[in-house]
Design brief:
By secondary structure, this protein is mainly α. It is built from 4 helices and no strands. Helix content is 81%, strand content 0%. The radius of gyration is 19 Å and the shape is elongated.
């Protein structure tokens, strides 16, 4: 095993550990944070970064072009679906009254939901 492969393996281990830690923090945040918006933040930001770091660690370890393509697709679909899912959860929470006016700095949906002003 040459020095580059050993360095890639060490980088893979670090990425896997940090990514798994971020995913764990996101899971703990989902269980402990008090409101929907805080939980939504925990479900999207650290979880997405954690998954990307895990995928990077796996890519550094596997080094096979077919596997790298598959991991790139997983990362692409994760990064495209996570913001959409967060938006839908946030809208559903707003429409069902789980998000109050005190939780928001600016309520942009109120104007859209109440109709045009005349």
């Amino acid at each position: 095993m040459n020095a580059w492969q050993q360095a890639a393996d060490v980088g893979a281990i670090l990425c896997l550990l940090v990514g798994a830690g971020l995913c764990l923090v996101a899971g703990i945040g989902l269980l402990t944070l008090p409101d929907v918006l805080s939980r939504l933040h925990a479900a999207t930001k650290p979880q997405s970064l954690g998954l990307l770091l895990v995928l990077l660690g796996v890519a550094l370890r596997l080094r096979n072009p077919v596997d790298l393509g598959t991991l790139a697709l997983v990362a692409f679909f994760q990064m495209t679906t996570t913001p959409i899912a967060a938006l839908m959860v946030g809208r559903a929470a707003y429409r069902t009254g789980q998000v109050g006016p005190a939780d928001l700095l600016r309520d942009e949906l109120d104007e859209q939901l109440s109709g045009p002003r005349t």
